[in-house]
Amino acid sequence: MLLCKRDNISRLVINFMEETAQKPRWYIIHTYSGYEQRVERTIKEMMRTGQDKGLIEEIVVPTEQVVELVKGQKKTSTRKFFPGYVLVKMVFNDESWHLIQSIPKVTGFIGSKNKPSPITDAEADKILSTVQSRKEQPRPKFHFARGDEIRVVDGPFANFNGVVEDVNYDKGKLKVSVSIFGRQTPVELDFVQVSKS
């Protein structure tokens, strides 16, 4: 009777391990900085041609849209959240490990050398939802906080220096105290009209 229970428990443990080993999880790949998109394209090509044998489910280079002023024009550009890192959802085994490691400009996985640690589903969901929200609403190139010293680069107050009094990220506006004729005057400016001093 005791032997049957041990066999059942052993079978349950083995089944659980096999199921979890075959479940795709999110892993973080470390790449040379600046080569994230190239690694992403290579993996997508492997997925398209079937070289991955269905082991790779999804790949994401976390980026956000940023707005800046260039030569008087608002310009939206893409900035990486985590330069040098790529997220991949895949079934981890020796074959998938070797497949990723063989890609040029990949230095390895985050975690121990031969057994990378997956990130939790909650962490992956948080990163992916942040990426999605930042695609919908571009952010300023600089992060501003109350008390930051700034320089106005566009508009009627161009070349004036000021201090940030209030930040409204939803509207993309700053309330800045600017010295005009020796008096501190509050003005409201767009994020793209200023740069950090």
From TrEMBL:
**InterPro entries named among the record's database cross-references:** KOW, NGN, NGN-like_dom, NGN_dom_sf, NusG-like, Rib_uL2_dom2, Ribosomal_uL24_CS, Transcrpt_antiterm_NusG
The biological processes this protein is annotated with in GO are: DNA-templated transcription elongation; DNA-templated transcription termination; regulation of DNA-templated transcription elongation; transcription antitermination; translation
Q: Record's SMART domains?
A: KOW (SM00739), NGN (SM00738)
Query: What family does this belong to?
Result: Belongs to the NusG family.
Q: What is this protein's function per UniProt? A: Participates in transcription elongation, termination and antitermination.
Q: Which HAMAP family match?
A: NusG
Q: What is this protein called?
A: Transcription termination/antitermination protein NusG
Q: Which organism is it from?
A: Desulfonatronospira thiodismutans ASO3-1
- Its encoding gene is what? nusG
